[in-house]
Amino acid sequence: MRIVMKIGTSTLTHGTGKLNIRRVEELCKVMSDLKNAGHEIVLVSSGAIAMGVGKMNLTRKPTDIPSKQALAAIGQCELMYIYDKLFSEYHHTVAQVLLTSSDVEDSHRRFNFQNTLFRLLEMRALPVINENDTVATAEIAVGDNDTLGAIVAVNVRADLLILMSDIDGLYTADPRKDPAARLIPRVERLTPEILALAGDAGTELGTGGMVTKLRAAGMCMEAGCDMIIMNGSRPADLYRAADGEEIGTRFIGKKEASL
Questions:
Q1: Is the pLDDT of residue 201 over 80?
Q2: Within a 13 Å sphere around the CA of 52, how many CA atoms are in the beta-carbon half?
Q3: Is the dihedral of CA 8, 11, 14, 19 positive or negative?
Q4: What is the β-pairing status of strands 249-251 and 226-231?
């Protein structure tokens, strides 16, 4: 199975903004084991700016664009150093790929991007993909790594995209406000009722990322790729996701679209 895994900043770091070492080590161990079992893994990783903030010992993330881009440049080095160190302990080689929307919107550049990823997978490398925050502007930014994960999954013809975040999946209501909210384990169609669960762009739930996750689900489902939203705090649950067990919320791809 070819699996794209997206890891959010909240999964990689503690509430302090510092790296969650134990969790990242466990994530790399599980992903290495899944590769050993024969799965092809592509990792879409957030966290460059957060790593830069920690590396420079700042108390908070700056708000101006030049500072964010500078910290992304610093943090991306730190992020790749960590992945290289941890995956090499299990004899896996990582490869860094930084993208902007231009790399997938332009047909020639998209072709080169796809060829590179397919060759990396043939070489049994583990591609680690992030948006190129150091040069991205409003005109060429993908904008969020949920969308980037879906773009990568579609372009590499993945069987499954897993979005790891700080939520267990899609609920019938905001579980932070409604104790009666229930987890929806399976979604076969993005109906208006399902889309409405993301909330409006200005709501706490909407800005928390469910809007982008459902957008990513739509891209994957249309391309025949399943997608799972799951909590990244329990890395061992990746085994269950890869085995097709019920975990988080699984969005079912249109299989005829992949024929």
A1: no
A2: 20
A3: negative
A4: antiparallel
* The pair of three-digit structure tokens given for residue 33, joined into one six-digit string: 């084991």
Neighbours of 185 (CB within 10 A): 12
Instruction: Write out the two tokens for 81.
Output: 């150093």
Share of the chain residues as helix, strand and coil, in percent rounded to the nearest 5: 45, 15, 35
- Structure confidence at residue 94 (pLDDT): 98
Q: Do the Cβ atoms of 156 and 4 come closer than 8 Å?
A: yes
Tell me which residue of 240, 76, 223 sits closest to 164, measured CA to CA. Answer: 240
The residue to which tokens 């904008």 are assigned: 143
CA dihedral 94, 45, 98, 88 (to 10 degrees): -10
**What spatial distance separates the first Cα and last Cα of the chain, rounded to whole Å?**
16
- Other CB atoms within a 10 A radius of the CB of residue 38 amount to 7
Helices 48-55, 65-88: axis angle to 10 degrees equals 100
117-146 pLDDT, tens digit each = 999 999 999 999 998 877 765 544 576 889
Please provide the size of the chain in residues: 259
User: Is pTM, for the whole model, over 0.85?
Assistant: yes
Q: Rounded to an integer, what distance in angstroms lies between the CA atom of residue 225 and that of residue 150?
A: 9
Provide the sign of the torsion angle of the four alpha carbons 251, 254, 114, 39, taken in this order. Answer: positive
